Amino acid sequence: MHKINLFIILSLLFVFSYCGTKSDAKQGLEADQYSTESSLGDVNRDKVYWGNIANGMSRSLVNHFWGANFEGYEGRYYFNYGSDLSNMTTNHYWPQAHAMDVIVDSYKRNSDQFYLDYYPLWWEGAPKYNFSGRDEDAWWNVFVDDMEWIVLAQLRMYESTEKEVYFAKAQQMYNDWIWPAWGPESEEPWFGGITWKTDVEKTKNACSNGPAAIVAARIYSMYDQIDNPGEKPKQEYLDEAVKIYSWLKENLYDPTEGKVFDNMNGKGEISPAVYTYNQGTFIGAAHELYKITGDRQYLEDAITASNYVIDHMSTNNGVLANSTSGDGGLFNGIFFRYFVSLVNEPDLDSATHEKFHNYITKSATVMVENGLNQKTMLFGGDWWHAPGENEPVALTPMLSGCMLAEAMCILKPLKD
């Protein structure tokens, strides 16, 4: 197909986006209408192009993973762990937050009722299939970080609809379950920090502290928009965000290289493992605090942590490691979610902005040209090889691909 014809078709698909009904939300929609042919390298990649890639992938996410799409599972308002019923394991709470984040991304971008219809369905299904939930409140989970991911999604649901029920639940979960996992500050060897999991020997992890700092900062930023924000003063949320971030930076961050270590155990030992999602939430927390306080050190921290990912973790021919299943399938997408916000930060110097902009653009281009099945619009987490048309794909890498595509839709142009 000639370049100009393909571009026109993509443009028309973007303009005439589908608006679904509630029944459509339960049935899903074939992603083929958004798929492209193999001549992607010839396409002028503008907002229309990336919008169609993101549309195709988000529709494919719904079509292949939303449980209620499949006969016999009509009430399963939940994203399955594998495509097309290939993995029906149900006790996977935290990916639900990231799947909903993609739905929110798509709704914010398109204002399409198709995506909005999933809000109440997910709101019903996510706690229902949380098998670690308590009888008195099904949203609770033994993994504190899992609740943090859910809260971040709830805050974005509020942000995109202004329905305070979403904010209220997020605030309650933070006040009652997340912040109480802090400290105590007199307890050795941690002297603070948010606990990772409440039913095992205590550890303080990057994955429970970075997201918690983001949650507290965002509640602070949204506080004045809420009619009844409760008795807890607004300033306490900022104080807690700073405290959590400061603990994370002091204990699990290498300021020289910019890497974020995974956890500190009860002996005070620091795990040397470095994961992209921890880099991402550290970047996200630092950037949130920079936007609130204007303290330049937060921005410098975010830049240093980003440079570590680009310079030391992108060893797969210039992109991140393949990650095709399990929790790790989500790690890269979480990084890109917070990284793109930093790339768009107007206070970045031109050289840093160009480096970061080129990096995320290259990553997305490699994914689309090599790792994305152009018919099914499924991404399996291998940057350089697309899944076969009938090959099962795991939810977590698919979400990472969706998040990267959505990131490209909000990426601002290079500075002049």
In short:
This is Alpha-1,6-mannanase. It comes from Algoriphagus aquimarinus. By secondary structure, the chain is mainly alpha-helical.
Give structural notes:
The protein has one domain (3-410): Glycosyltransferase, CATH 1.50.10. A two-stranded antiparallel ribbon has the order 1-4. The protein has a two-stranded antiparallel ribbon with strand order 2-3. The protein is 54% helix and 2% strand. The chain has helices at residues 3-15, 22-27, 47-65, 94-110, 113-116, 118-128, 144-161, 164-178, 206-222, 234-252, 276-293, 296-313, 331-343, 350-371, 395-410; strands spanning 204-205, 253-254, 259-260, 263-264. The chain is globular, with a radius of gyration of 21 Å. The protein is mostly helical. This is Alpha-1,6-mannanase.
List keywords for this structure.
416 residues, mainly alpha, Glycosyltransferase, two-stranded antiparallel sheet, disordered N terminus, Glyco_hydro_76
Secondary structure: helix percent: 40-55%
Per the CATH scheme, the topology name is Glycosyltransferase
Number of DSSP-assigned strands: 4
SS field, number of helical segments = 15
CATH architecture: Alpha/alpha barrel
* Biggest pleated-sheet summary: 2 strands, antiparallel
Rg of Cα set: 21 Å
